[in-house]
Amino acid sequence: MSKRKTVEPDITKVKLTRKEFKRQWVLILIAALYIIYGIVFYYLPLVGWIMAFENYKLKDGVFGSKFVGLDKFKFLFKDKDFIRVIRNTVCMGVINLAVTTVTAIGFAILLNEVRNKWFKKSIQTISYLPHFLSMIIVCGIVHDSLSSTGIINELLLKFNILEQPYNFFAHKGWFWPIVAFTNVWKETGWNAIIYLATITSIDPALYEAASIDGAGRWQKIKYVTLPGLRSTIMILLIMNIGNVLNAGFEIQYLLTNGLIQEVTETIDIYILKFAISKMDYSLGTAAGIFKTLVAMVLIVGSNAIAKATGDERLF
Predict the structure, then answer these.
(1) What are the extents of the domains in the chain?
(2) 171-189 burial, b if ≥16 CB within 10 A, otherwise e?
(3) pLDDT (tens digit, 9 = 90+) per residue, 215-273?
(4) Residue 233, CA distances (Å) to 6, 202, 303 in order
């Protein structure tokens, strides 16, 4: 019979751990508070996902309601309205992602090329301001500007582009571009901050070498700035792809009307209209789980593609 080897604890490591704990107990305490916060407010509520598999009733509670399996999910994907709102949500989400990303990168590059520091800081500060406005205020401004008596129609009439006022909110084809424009106007300055920070971290020697080689501004942007931004663009793109189904609620809800309702409803509005208003919380939970699963698949898939192509990735 072979004798079993007894593994003795490394006393040095134990003492070192205790010493480190005594030295950094404040940081450990702060970290523990954040961990507890995450568990309480992010993980414990996931118990409510059980409602998606039940015919949830308030009087019976989560653990007392009748179990119905996947019936709520089957109802969702058989409902033509839900398929329509998925189309609307995906289209608006993709348009918003593409337009806001491109405009933020373009704005950051152009702002970086401004040589006058006072003018540069002024433009940068002004571009941040819409981000801090309430979406209700932003939608009010957009609605008033595009109304039949708004400034856009006044300018179009003044320059004889139109013969009579045009109702932008009466035509379905204009709504998605309006949503994209609203997001761009509100968030471009704020989204450009991280790109500006990345540009400032690019080695100035690269620009000096490009100047020696005779490169102009456009060549420097193409061969120095954009390659320097590539890793940041990929990371942010992977993170934002997961939010494609979070195309919005406030803009669509505030700017919609009966004429264009077919293209304005998103999944969030569907949940409000068909789940919360009718107190069918199980249906709303099922739709929320669907959004979460799609977001996870998109993030993992895009991260795998970035890994296969050798680009920066999240994990």
Answers:
(1) 11-67, 74-308
(2) eeebbbebbbebbbbbbbb
(3) 888 999 999 999 999 999 999 999 899 889 888 899 999 999 888 999 999 999 998 88
(4) 52, 14, 13
Provide the 10 A C-beta neighbour count for residue 235. 17
The distance from CA 79 to its chain's CA centroid, rounded to whole angstroms, is: 27
Parallel, antiparallel or unpaired: strands 54-55 and 66-67: antiparallel
Q: Is the CB of residue 238 less than 8 Å from the CB of residue 314?
A: yes
Q: Are 298 and 241 in contact (CB under 8 A)?
A: yes
Handedness of CA 199, 202, 206, 211 (dihedral sign): positive
Residue 230, both tokens: 């590539």
DSSP, res 131 = G
Q: What is the pLDDT of residues 88-105, one digit of tens each?
A: 999 999 999 999 999 999
CA 224 to chain centre: 28
pTM for this predicted structure: 0.85
CATH architecture of 74-308: Orthogonal Bundle (1.10)
